[in-house]
Amino acid sequence: MKHVTVPAMSWVVVCDGSKALLFQNVGDAQVINLKVADVEVEPHAPTRDLGAERSGRVYESLDGRRSSMEAPNYHELAEVKFLGKVADRLDELVRTHKVKHLVIVAPPKAMGVLREQITEGVQKVVSAEIVKDLVKFPTAEIEHHLSVMGQLF
């Protein structure tokens, strides 16, 4: 693990593919006190409920054999779309609130999608990326995780 500092008035986003929590640290780096600024929740149905069509077929031109194509994972596509909205929200936040420090907390898959979608302006203010799934934790436990990571060194 690496040392993470969450200075006073820093912004923290904790998200996964269907929920995003946006906090501002109204405490300081030693005593983190996260105040909820925004919550976005977009529950996604399983792929079996989202995509009712059969997967497509491919016909070989030489011998007439058929094979099926892999059906799209609509649940995963919905998560990518949601994380795109989160990236847009972060860009808006950086532009309108003059953010100096931003900490992103997300599970590995969501972090990878966010890295691809955040703008250069957001990248400049990201002070830490924590690859953990903390979105279902209460605020006090998220504060605890961030505090422990700040005391590693």
How does this structure look, described?
This protein has 153 residues and is α/β, with parallel strands linked by helices. It has helices at 47-50, 74-97, 108-117, 120-125, 139-150, and strands at 11-15, 19-25, 34-41, 57-59, 66-68, 102-106, 126-131. The strands form two sheets. It has a five-stranded mixed sheet, sandwiched between helices. A two-stranded antiparallel ribbon has the order 4-5. A hairpin with a 3-residue loop joins β1 and β2. The protein is elongated.
Largest sheet: 5 strands, mixed
Radius of gyration: 20 Å
Oligomer category: single chain
CATH architectural name: 2-Layer Sandwich
Task: Give me the side-by-side strand order of the main sheet.
Answer: 3-2-1-6-7
What's the β-strand tally?
7
Which characteristics define this entry?
153 residues, alpha/beta, Nucleotidyltransferase, domain 5, 5-stranded mixed beta sheet, two-stranded antiparallel sheet, 5 helices
Entry summary:
The chain has helices spanning 47-50, 74-97, 108-117, 120-125, 139-150, and strands spanning 11-15, 19-25, 34-41, 57-59, 66-68, 102-106, 126-131. The protein is α/β, with parallel strands linked by helices and 153 residues long. The protein has one domain (11-49, 58-150): Nucleotidyltransferase, domain 5, CATH 3.30.420.60.
What does the secondary structure layout of this molecule look like, with pairings?
Elements: E1 11-15, E2 19-25, E3 34-41, H1 47-50, E4 57-59, E5 66-68, H2 74-97, E6 102-106, H3 108-117, H4 120-125, E7 126-131, H5 139-150
Parallel strand pairs: 1-6, 6-7
Antiparallel strand pairs: 1-2, 2-3, 4-5
